Every structure is written in C-alpha cells, then in structure tokens.
C-alpha cells in the first residue's frame, strides 16, 4: 500500500496492492485537512485488507534451550495511541476497494474520531495496560520482568519504528510489543463490533540483534492470514451507537482483550519447571 500526496492542496492518491493478485490506484481531490483525515482512514482499512489477504505471518517459535538461559526480561511499552480504530468491513466502500467510497471514508473517520474522543475521557492507556499485563504474567511464570519505555521513532509518513539495537537495558532479553490494531472491528454487515487488539510480540536476546521469538496475537477480530493466535472477544457491541452509549464498557472490553493478548504471548514463552529452577539457582536474587 502506498499513500502519496498529489499536490499541496489537491488531495492524494492511493495505490493498493493485495498479495500480488490485484492492484488499483484511486485519486482523491479534497482540501488538505480532509485529505489527511481520509488518508488515515484509508490506511486503517488497508491494514485490515492486508491482514486478511496476506500469506502466513513470519513467526519464530521460541526454543526451550534459549528460554532456559533467560531470567530477566524488560517489556518495552508500546507507543501511545492517537486514537482507537473503528473498522467496518461491511461498508460497500471497503468491499469495492474504496472506489466511490467518499461517504464511507467520511463515515469511518467520523466514527473513529468520535469514539476516540469519548474513550480518551476515561483516562486509560490500553497499550500501557497491555505491557503491564504481560509483565505481571511473566513474573508469575518465574521470570523477573518489568516494563520500560523504548526509543520509538515517528517517521514523516506517520509510521513508528523501534530499532532493537537502540534499546538500553541490562536484562537478559527484551520483549517488544507492537500493536497493529486497537479498537473495534465489524467483519461484515451482519456482525457485531468486536473489541480487537492485534499485536506482534518479539523477544530479542542479550545482544539485541538475535530474535528468539516472534508471535502474532489477536483478540476479537481474527486476521485471515495463517499463523495468528486468536482469542474470541468476551463482549461484543451490536452497532456503533452501542459503543458510544457506554464508553466504560468499551474500555473494559479492550482491557479484557489486552489481558487475553498477554496470556497468549506469555503462554508461548512458558519454560519447563526444571528450567525455571535452574535459572533461579544460576542467578540468585
């Protein structure tokens, strides 16, 4: 997917390539502010398309021998969210690749902004909750884990990146959590909105170059690409009005999703009981 400006005030064009099977270019012409808002929505939709259509994800299974050598883990807190995504794949503008989807785009942008405004009033950081949940679960498993901030860098295109070798930590390993969706997804016109978090979890070794583990985890909406570990949502919402009517329930449902992601991630890092005991003996507190 490529999003490009078509001019200073003329809008932008989207070039969308899905798994090598289809490509399209759509050119929009709006004011600069509206173009920026539509570009944000288009990027969210394309994330959904790519997650649904791409091939198996490049996961790396953790090996027992590597985990046995790890006692301390720093969990890197994900970057703070600018908003909560609202994605509705039943919209005709999405189904037909955004062609003629001006109304659909404006509707999705409006819903994302309105819901984000209400949820932000609750004063809760779902990404911080996710990191805290993962750290707590790792400690219960016998690791010595804590949450640390990472050197996330924002590029001009709006994407965030974290270079593993720039992480300052004395821990045996660092676990980097990278959420790709945090919000609510309605997979079709007949489905409820599902509180959804999708996250890539990467465990990097002491040298900060070797990736010992990389897992793809979803709670709520399940990406169609192979290799994702999915946990069904505990609570769903029949429509967007139901989301807006109860912001506290929305936040609670996302907290449940964060807890489910934490359980999914840490279950992949579970060591044999003998390995835990050996690690404790080798590095006493």
Keywords:
elongated, 12 strands, three-stranded antiparallel beta sheet, 2 domains, seven-stranded mixed beta sheet, 285 residues, alpha/beta
Structure description:
The protein is α/β, with parallel strands linked by helices and 285 residues long. It has 2 domains: 2-53; 64-282, no CATH class. 36% of the residues lie in helices and 26% in strands. Strands 4, 5, 6, 9, 10, 11 and 12 form a 7-stranded mixed beta sheet that branches. The longest helix is centred in the first third of the chain and has 22 residues, at 32-53.
The biggest beta sheet reads: 7 strands, mixed
Q: Tell me, rounded to a whole number, the average pLDDT.
A: 80
Q: Spans of 5+ residues with little confidence (pLDDT < 50)?
A: 1-31
What fraction of residues sit in β-strands?
Answer: 25-35%
Q: Can you describe this structure in just a few lines?
A:
With 285 residues, this protein is α/β, with parallel strands linked by helices. The chain has two domains: 2-53; 64-282, no CATH class.
Topology:
Layout: E1 2-5, E2 12-18, E3 22-28, H1 32-53, H2 64-68, E4 72-76, E5 85-88, H3 92-95, H4 102-120, H5 126-140, E6 144-148, E7 153-154, E8 160-161, E9 173-186, E10 194-204, E11 211-219, E12 228-231, H6 240-245, H7 247-268, H8 273-282
Parallel strand pairs: 4-6, 4-9, 5-9, 11-12
Antiparallel strand pairs: 1-2, 2-3, 7-8, 9-10, 10-11
């Amino acid at each position: 997917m490529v999003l490009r400006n078509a001019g200073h005030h003329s809008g932008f064009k989207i070039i969308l390539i899905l798994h090598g099977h289809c490509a399209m270019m759509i050119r929009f012409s709006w004011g600069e502010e509206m173009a920026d808002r539509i570009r944000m929505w288009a990027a969210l939709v394309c994330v959904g398309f790519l997650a649904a259509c791409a091939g198996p994800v490049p996961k790396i299974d953790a090996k027992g021998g590597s985990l046995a050598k790890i006692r301390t883990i720093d969990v890197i807190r994900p970057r703070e969210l600018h908003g909560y995504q609202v994605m509705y794949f039943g919209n005709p503008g999405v189904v037909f690749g955004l062609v003629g989807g001006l109304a659909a785009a404006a509707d999705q942008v409006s819903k994302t902004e309105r819901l984000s405004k209400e949820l932000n009033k609750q004063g809760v950081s779902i990404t911080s909750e996710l990191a805290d949940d993962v750290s707590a679960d790792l400690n219960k498993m016998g690791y010595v884990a804590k949450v640390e901030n990472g050197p996330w860098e924002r590029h001009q295109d709006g994407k965030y990146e974290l270079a593993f070798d720039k992480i300052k930590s004395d821990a045996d390993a660092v676990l980097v959590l990278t959420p790709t969706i945090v919000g609510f997804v309605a997979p079709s016109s007949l489905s409820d909105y599902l509180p959804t978090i999708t996250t890539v979890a990467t465990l990097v070794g002491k040298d900060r170059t070797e990736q010992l583990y990389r897992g793809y985890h979803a709670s709520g909406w399940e990406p169609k690409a192979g290799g994702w570990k999915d946990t069904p949502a505990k609570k769903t919402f029949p429509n967007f009005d139901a989301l807006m009517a109860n912001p506290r329930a929305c936040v609670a449902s996302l907290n449940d999703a964060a807890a489910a992601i934490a359980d999914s991630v840490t279950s992949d890092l579970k060591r044999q009981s003998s390995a835990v005991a050996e690690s404790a003996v080798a590095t006493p507190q």
